[in-house]
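Q: Fold this one first, please.
A: Sequence and structure below.
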Amino acid sequence: MRILVTRPSPDGERTAEALTAMGHEALLAPMLEIRFETDVLIDLTGATALAFTSRNGVRAAHAHAAFDALSKLKTYCVGEATAEEAKASGFQSVVCADGDVAALARSIVAAGETGPILHLRGRHAAGDLSGDLEREGIESCAAILYRSEPVPALPRIAETGLSTGQIDAILFYSPRTAKTFVNILKDDALISARTTPCLCLSDTIAKPLRAAGFERVKVSVTPDAASLMALVADESASQQRHTPTT
């Protein structure tokens, strides 16, 4: 299959490598540009642990001047990929949740944390970790360490591929990438894209696509990369079964 990857760099390149290893052709069309806020003051006063809801949060923290102090705090991560990034970056005590913000909050509660929990995040974060924790009586605060800016247009090769029906599937990893994709599509590409399989990491990501009239939106069983790659494999097998033989 020829698959459009909407994930920002550098994760988009990693996804492309995984798809290539599966025998697919990957086209990179990142919908967001990630920019670190390196001059943000992080107040560590009283903080008992950190929480990350994205790999980019980990990367931004690693690039921050306060990293040495941050790395010594117990670190809760939303899922396996974020936890791996934290370990590789040098965070010393990493706990992995099951892949979404609600699971992250449950993990922090189950550990008996009382807070304050410092959530290092982007300007636009999925879910409401602070709200989930505060409902459990756990104090939390947030520091915004990066922002993700929507791109103004699709790469030409991606737009042409969609317009001519030469894209077999599109991968979506976040609600903002899905919303940005819908917003920047031009008419010809939009008409074709609405019938192209859209493979999503979660129902939340799928919602803006369905609302825009996309007809073939599919969601992975669990919100993790392995499950999404399994969905890619299922879609590939399905398309092969429906390809006419000569």
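Q: Good. Now the second chain.
A: Here it is, same layout.
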Amino acid sequence: MRSDLPKVVFPIGGRPMVCAVADACLAAGCTRIIAVVGHKQELVREALRDYAQVEYAVQDQQLGTGHAVACAAPLFATESAAPGNRVFVLCGDGPLIRPATLAQVVQRHAQSNASATLATSVIDDPTGYGRIVRDAQGAFVAIVEQKNCTPEQLMVREVNPSYYCFDAKALFGALPRVTRNALTNEYYLTDVPALLLADGQRVEVLSAVPPEDVLSINTPEDLAKVDAIYRARAAHANSGSSPSPSPSQPPRTGAHAS
């Protein structure tokens, strides 16, 4: 981004992009929002100052997504004490997230009594994203980060855009068993669904995220593109209509319980 600022504070629609994610969570029914902060955290706190529902967990070292979520564990002590409490895990730099997609995820999660539910997307260029690996019958097997993919897995276009819904007890019970990745020395949240499967727990997967919603923001040019899409959606919403999402693959169930 040619800047030392945290990406989530760059503006989309005239506000820090993390605000769009917070708005989507609230619209989907979330009652608490935990923001995991680190580098220049004061800027993120300032960006979210108007959200009374936001609490903060501090990640002092950048040791991966699994470590980031583990830093929030103390704030979920009550929810993780017994099964049945749901928690979304989302990225703060995905401002095109739709409340309707989150609602679809949590509905599937509740109806299936899953320990984890993730929404995927099928995109033309999956570079940089974790790939969704399925077995010969189409059932979910694992999420494999790009750096760990085989040549065959790199050809997969179904990706993980980081839309997760977990049972809090299952999530925080599995995180201590995540080991450091041999290539990156990081702890990956993406290892948790496979751990839950190995425990015989249910993992649901649905292809529900329109490709447009997972556009990466890695350059000022990307930022301008996403900002234009976000503003167009807001204009349609204010006019009483809403643009149709980009077509995605029909929803597929990747549920599997060992």
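Q: Anything worth noting on the second one?
A: Confidence is low (pLDDT under 50) at residues 244-258.
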